[in-house]
């Protein structure tokens, strides 16, 4: 379930709003403690859980995650007021960015293939003859699957003429491209962080909303309250998320308390030109192909699962990397906050000394509500440095490869560029990448763009808008920019 509008998103938004409102109140700790009871008061009816007490318990867990803490390390005797206090005192976020809410996790049944009552007991027995593992037998005239022999390959499902065989999946497990989620002894999901690439697909897939990012909103608000020079860095995908011009969103961020707001598309321009230079040099050395390096989840994939492809990965930094670098050059003591569509960027920020915090689009939207900022009524605020068309198109699938190709063409470089776009990381695309690494060849092109999320960054786990609408808005905003080479030349003058 990866829709942009569902009950879980509404619930998460309400909790984030209440957390922010509590922080802005005269007594953060006490008001944070009251949130479960305010949301589910005595006598309240709920159709989500068996009773309001269970619902309050799950809401409490969501608040703990919203305050930036791990449920796995939760002390059930600790009050929410204590967690709130610790959030304001925390100097840096926890290393692991995801947490599983055990109370919300349904404990889904194990993935399996089984025969339903629709089985007609046909004479042909295509299910039995198709099974390569001898897992299917006939009992009382109907097909029966031996779970101990079944490999969940699904061949029998395709063979059955009556669609009588079904596959039960565990949503979070099924979407994880690196098998980082498994059930523990109690049947609840557990994340193996040694495998996890922080792509956030499990967050979108879980129909119970049991997998959460640990929020850094309180960390950011605390630094703003302390009077620090907190700088927001807006990912270019933001142009497709809100029904307001980007210039108004910039004004809204200044009203929240950020001292400056930079377009990460500015950093994307640096990425484009640096990656174009890297590609040119590699092709001159007869390299078979080069992959892009701006997707944080892909970089984690390379590090943890496909180290053999590392020689083919561009050494160029991500747009966030260069934007944070720009901010720190202006003020080495500033606090940088990346406004992100993507959970993997939280992990990247952990490894980047210039990136301090990350808040996602959902969290930003909740802050605007909590602070009662009417964005439509605000004046436009222009950026000090305008970004290029190519930089603003980075969040669209194919946008990075096209930016590199355009930059080379604008410079008059006589280099053959054949983009190959991997639109979403899944088990199949990972197998393809492993094949590229093993053979040292990419049959589909010499510039391979990898985006973890289908559609690009506009398909990130905190996206607020449908992809078709987001793509249209991003493209319209990008069209206002100059070509990347012309744009950067003007900036240098």
Write the layout of secondary structure elements.
Blueprint lengths: L6 H18 L3 H12 L12 H15 L13 H10 L8 E3 L11 E4 L10 H5 L5 E4 L2 E4 L9 H5 L5 E4 L2 H5 L5 E3 L5 E3 L9 H5 L5 E3 L3 H9 L4 E5 L11 H11 L3 E4 H21 L5 E2 L4 H9 L14 H12 L4 E6 L3 H7 L6 E4 H10 L18 H4 L6 H12 L8 E5 L3 H13 L7 E5 L15 H12 L5 H9 L1
Helix pairs in contact: 1-2, 1-3, 1-15, 2-3, 2-4, 11-13, 11-17
Can you describe what's shown?
With 493 residues, the protein is of the alpha/beta class. The protein has three domains: 7-107 and 172-215, Alpha-Beta Plaits (2-Layer Sandwich); 112-168, Alpha-Beta Plaits (2-Layer Sandwich), CATH 3.30.70.20; 219-492, Fe-only Hydrogenase (Larger Subunit), Chain L, domain 3. It is built from 20 helices and 15 strands. The strands form six sheets. A four-stranded parallel beta sheet has the order 10-9-12-13, sandwiched between helices. Strands 11-15-14 form a three-stranded parallel beta sheet, covered by helices on one side. α1 packs across α15. The model has no long low-confidence stretch (mean pLDDT 93).
